[in-house]
Write the structure tokens for this entry.
Amino acid sequence: MIKAVLFDFAGTLFGRPTYRWLSPPHLSVLRAPAPFVARMNAAERAVWDARDLTVLASRSAYWTLFRLAGLSMPDDLFQRLNNPAFWLPYPDAAPALAAARPLKVGVLSNISWDIRSVFSRESLAVDAFALSFEIGVSKPSVRAFQAACVRLDVEPAECLYLGDDPVADGAAVAAGLRFQLVSTAPVGRREPVLVEALARHGIN
């Protein structure tokens, strides 16, 4: 029996409104970083793997990523990625959070900054946040999902997780949660997928 629903943040509940400020090469690297991550040395890879645990690690990791791609990382680029004003809710975020009630609702995110102000700005209420920089571990570690369930006071088998990353978010299954993959796109371009995703599990 599902007693709680966990949502991913970036690409699931909130997204980026436009990429006009970002050059096509930078966007291409962000969308497909794997070839450049593969070229990182051991120390650089360790920082990349820890990029969602501190702001310093995040800045260093992305600086290395863009350097290996032959690109610079202007300070305003990094600042925008970590600026609450830059993140907007998908139109179906509020309806999905409402549909999930009266179950417990939480957010589990790989993130190096506090996203609570973004939810407050949009008057979106959740019962608990499990943010990687606070819990000290990031997805796809099963410990991240376990920590989120502890904060919601439910067993993993009682929790459904919605996310857009089949690897990081899909690891919910290994942690004992139910998992529903959703499609993603910039805000304004994605179809309303969240309410339908919940309905597949009898939540509406």
Q: What stands out?
A: The two ends are 15 Å apart (CA to CA). The longest strand covers residues 104-109. The beta strands are 4-7, 14-15, 88-89, 104-109, 128-131, 159-163, 178-181. The mean pLDDT is 93.
